[in-house]
Design brief:
Chain A: InterPro entries: CT_A_B, Cyclophilin-like_dom_sf, PxpC. The structure holds 2 protein chains of 2 kinds. Chain A is mainly β. Chain A has 3 helices and 20 strands. Chain A has helices at residues 38-47, 190-198, 269-273, and strands spanning 5-10, 16-18, 56-58, 64-68, 72-78, 81-85, 88-90, 96-98, 104-109, 115-119, 150-152, 175-181, 200-203, 211-215, 230-231, 236-238, 246-248, 255-256, 260-264, 280-285. The longest helix of chain A is centred in the first third of the chain and has 10 residues, at 38-47. Chain B is α+β, with helices and mostly antiparallel strands. Chain B folds into 2 domains: 2-66, 2-Layer Sandwich (Gyrase A, domain 2); 79-201, Beta Barrel (Cyclophilin), CATH 2.40.100. Chain B has helices at residues 18-34, 57-66, 91-98, 102-110, and strands at residues 2-6, 10-14, 41-44, 48-52, 79-84, 113-119, 126-129, 144-147, 151-155, 158-161, 166-168, 171-175, 196-201. Chain B has a 4-stranded antiparallel beta sheet with strand order 1-2-4-3, with helices on one face. In chain B, strands 5-13-6-7 form a 4-stranded mixed beta sheet. In chain B, helix 3 (91-98) crosses helix 4 (102-110). Chain B is elongated, with a radius of gyration of 18 Å. The chains are: A mainly beta, B alpha+beta. Chain A binds chain B through residues 23-30, 128-129, 138-140, 180, 182-183, 228-233, 235-236, 253-255, 260, 263-266, 288-289, and chain B through 4-10, 12, 40-50, 52-53, 58, 118-125, 127, 164, 183, 188-189, 192-193.
């Protein structure tokens, strides 16, 4: 092993390696995967001079701690948190130099849910179908981080970043998600469709990288039969038999047999990645572009 | 044929049978290969084909509903043979359901030519059709928490092979040593939509 590597000292609740995922294989049952908050991951890469497709770490709720074997530049974006290097406070949302052997600590999210840690050179675990992303539905890609794991790092690009800080959206106090209805809104009662686009739901603690689960209004079906399995898109709002809508995120199954009442605009999904359990959620109907 | 818009960049094209879905899928794959269709994902399923990553779904919807789609799917030339031992724990239940002996289940299953209608559930998991409708079986009332990799299983009109150990509610009739999914192999999936499959019984 070269000395360009990162040792995992504290893996946190769930920290995974993520890049832009592996779209294009859905017909084989392969989810797209990739960073849930794509803009935050891209910004972290930009701050350390990486290409946008470089793999980063995605933490969940309580951060992580890693020790690089060589001196690197890192940037922590996404959910705001305390960042420190060998116990000394360092900047969040800006490039930070971490000397060889020093401990980088990414703290618990102060708001939001997922922080992104880019390291100069990127994480270069073996790609699977063109991506280094961990897919929690199918098990493709590297396993989630464990204490003591070692992640290989690439060679930093000679391109120097000109950005040293950048504005980031605050994690949402309320999620307002624009949806287009269909393709299966006709499987629900008119009251259920109205409730879907007018009532307030809450983010369920059972949410994960596969889907944002909701609590609140139960959407009643008009048709009770079984829908033959059909292809699913990112952002699809599927309604299982319990009537509680689920918004499909990056690790969603490629086909499914529960009706999709609507689809959330892709540009609204990064905010979904940062919504903590209990956050109010509203779905606003918009016209198709 | 009905083309339902899905979000801003996808279309769900609905047809009336599994054969039509396979024919439509083959035609769309052909159009993409010749360069007349630009799309990120073409995902066939039981009665639909999903097209995702389109720039103008409304235009494509109009085009598709106005165009001639061959009604019968072209047959793939090659047949993938999967060696199988008919030793599954649900073989007797399936035999009872079919009203035949377990040996007869094995004979009928191995005597059928299957086609991968679509994939899903897990990377490399194909939904294989080919058995006559009278051999449809229900899922198990209680799903197993762990079905071993290589299990050959039935549910509804489909046969499937579990690429890796996972929970599952299908009726297990046999076991294969074939490697359905290996991401280090090209292609990673042994079965993809349209592949013809035969199960070859072994003692």
């Amino acid at each position: 092993m070269t000395d360009r590597a990162l040792s995992v000292v504290r893996s946190g609740a769930l920290t995974t390696v993520q890049d832009r995922g592996r779209p294009g294989h859905a017909h084989l049952g392969v989810p797209r995967s990739g960073a849930l908050d794509g803009p935050a991951a891209a910004l972290a890469n930009r701050l350390v001079g990486n290409r946008p497709e470089a793999a980063v770490l995605e933490t969940t709720l309580n951060g992580c701690a890693v020790r690089p074997r060589s001196t690197v530049t890192v940037a922590v974006t996404g959910a705001p948190c305390h960042v420190s290097v060998d116990g000394r406070p360092a900047a969040w949302g800006a490039p930070v130099r971490v000397p060889a052997g020093a401990l980088l600590t990414v703290g618990t999210a102060l708001s939001g849910l997922r922080s992104y840690v880019a390291v100069s050179g990127g994480i270069i675990v073996e790609p699977v179908l063109g991506s280094r992303s961990t897919d929690l539905l199918s098990g493709l890609g590297p396993a989630p981080l464990t204490n003591g794991a070692v992640l290989p790092l690439g060679t930093p690009s000679s391109l120097h970043t000109r950005v040293d800080t950048a504005p980031q959206p605050a994690p949402p106090a309320e999620l307002v998600l624009r949806v287009t209805l269909g393709p299966r809104d006709d499987w629900f009662t008119p009251e259920a469709v109205r409730a879907f686009t007018s009532r307030t739901f809450q983010v369920s603690s059972a949410s994960n990288r596969i889907g944002l689960r909701t609590e609140g209004p139960v959407l009643e079906r008009r048709l009770t039969g079984e829908l033959p399995s059909e292809g699913m898109v990112l952002g699809a709002v599927q309604v299982p038999p319990d009537g509680r809508p689920v918004v499909f995120l990056a690790d969603h199954p490629t086909t499914g047999g529960y009706p999709v009442i609507g689809v959330v605009r892709e540009t609204d999904l990064p905010a979904v990645a940062q919504a903590v359990p209990g956050t109010p959620v509203r779905f606003i109907e918009v016209r198709r572009r | 044929m009905r083309a339902l818009p899905v979000g801003d960049a996808a279309l769900l094209v609905e047809v009336s049978s599994g054969d039509e879905a396979r024919a439509l899928h083959a035609e769309l794959v052909r159009r993409r290969a010749e360069g007349s269709l630009s799309v990120r994902e073409i995902v066939p399923a039981a009665r639909t084909v999903l097209l995702d990553g389109l720039t103008d779904p409304a235009r494509l919807a109009a085009e598709l509903t106005a165009s001639e789609i061959p009604s019968a799917p072209p047959r793939a030339r090659e047949v993938v043979e999967l060696p199988v031992r008919y030793d599954g724990p649900d073989l007797a239940d399936v035999a009872a359901h079919w009203g035949v002996s377990p040996e007869e289940v094995a004979r009928i299953h191995a005597g059928t030519e299957f086609t991968v209608a679509f994939c899903g559930f897990a990377p490399g998991f194909g939904y294989l059709t080919g058995l006559p409708a009278r051999y449809d079986v229900p899922r198990r009332a209680t799903p197993r928490t762990a079905v071993p990799a290589g299990s050959v299983a039935l549910a509804g009109p489909y046969t499937g092979v579990y690429p890796r150990s996972s929970p599952g509610g299908w009726q297990l009739i046999g076991t294969t040593d074939a490697v359905l999914w290996d991401h280090a192999r090209v292609p990673a999936a042994l079965l993809s939509p349209g592949t013809r499959v035969r199960f070859v019984g072994a003692a």
